[in-house]
Amino acid sequence: MKIAVTYENGQIFQHFGHTELFKIYEVQDGKITNSQIVETNGSGHGALAGLLSTLGIDILVCGGIGGGAQMALAQTGIKLYGGVSGDADETVEALLNGKLMYNPDVKCNHHDSHHDGQHTCGCIQSVYGL
Length: 130
Description:
There is one protein chain. This protein has helices at residues 45-54, 67-76, 88-96, and strands at 2-8, 11-12, 21-28, 31-39, 59-61, 79-81. It is α/β, with parallel strands linked by helices. The chain has one domain (2-96): Nucleotidyltransferase, domain 5, CATH 3.30.420.130. The model is unreliable at 110-130 (pLDDT under 50).
């Protein structure tokens, strides 16, 4: 299984369509066996879904993501865990242990605005439940 996480400085990047990097985790028998960072080369929403499909990704973990990108991922068969923030490595471990908190109804409706470094599309602030 392969898991992709939108990635920036060890953290989950909060806007799928603007991510410049994915951290890709290869998982076997519930354990991470390999990871690598992949550049997106500036791809947009639809192209990012195609890139993930080409890489053989099964699961995407991200912060905010719009409806069009969600549909593109669904068409490629990639399962989405959106609305997540925090450390990328800890997030994937939480996912593998069945403890990942995410927002199944995550939305991002302001793609054309500048966020001034702030992006809150229904993001859950912790990867762990209390």
